[in-house]
Amino acid sequence: MQTIHQNPSFQLLLTSTEELILDKGCQQTTLQDIMKRSGLSKGAIYHYVKSKDELMGLLLQKRFETIGQQFYQSVQAGGQELSSGLEAISNGLRHIHDSRDVTNLILIYLLSKREDPIIGAMLARLHEASIQASKEWIEVGQKGGVIPASLDAEKTARLFSVITYGIRMNTQIAPDSTQLSAVEVYKMMFEILSKG
User: Fold this and answer.
1) What sign results for the dihedral spanned by CA atoms 177, 180, 182, 184?
2) What are the distances in angstroms from CA 134 to CA 21, 117, 149?
3) To 5 degrees, how large is the angle CA 4–CA 163–CA 142?
4) Helical H runs in 25-116?
5) Average pLDDT over all residues of the chain
C-alpha cells in the first residue's frame, strides 16, 4: 500500500474530511461539503481520489501509518525494550476505545458498504496492510531479542487484529458498557509477546 501523500493540499483535504465526519457523520458528509470546507475544487479532489469512500479509506490508512512511524521512531530512539515499542503502538491505538473517533466511524461506515467491490477490495487491502505491519513489528522485536523467536508472528498479528476489531465494534454497539481499557489491552499484548 502506498504511503499517504505529504503535500499541503492533500493534507488539507484529509483534515477537512475528518472535521466534517466528526460534525456530520460519514453518511451525511458529501463531496460538496468537502469542497466547501477545504476550498479545493472538484478537480483538485479527484486528482487524489475517485470517491468520498476512497478518501475515507485514506484517512484509515493515514492513522495506521502514523502508528507505524511512532513505533519505528521509538525503536530508532533506542527503545530496545519490548515495553517501549509496544507502548508506542498502544498509544497509537488508544483511539479504538473511543466511539466518536473518526477512524472508528469510518470503519463502521465502510463495512456497511463492503459489498461494493471497490470498497470491499479497499477494506481487504487495508486489513492485510495492517496485518503485515503488525507482523513486521513483532519480527523487529524478535530480531532485537525482546520477543521469543518461537512466537508465530503471522498468527499473533492476526490475533491482535481480531482484538482491535472487537474493541472497535464494542465501542460502537455498547459505548457505555465496561470494556477492556487501553492499559488492560497493553498488558495482555505484553504478556503474549514476552512469553511467546
Assistant:
1) positive
2) 27, 26, 15
3) 75
4) 31-38, 42-48, 52-76, 82-92, 102-111
5) 86
- Hey, what's the cell of 85? 515499542
Yes or no: say if 164 and 179 are a contact pair by the CB < 8 Å rule: no
- Are 96 and 165 within 8 A, CB to CB? no
Question: Do residues 38 and 96 make contact, with C-beta atoms less than 8 angstroms apart?
Answer: no
Q: What cell numbers appear for 181 in the block?
A: 481499557
Q: What is the pLDDT of residues 90-128, one digit of tens each?
A: 777 777 878 888 999 999 999 999 999 999 999 999 999
CA dihedral 121, 124, 129, 130 (to 10 degrees): 140
Give the C-alpha separation, 90 to 193, whole Å: 13
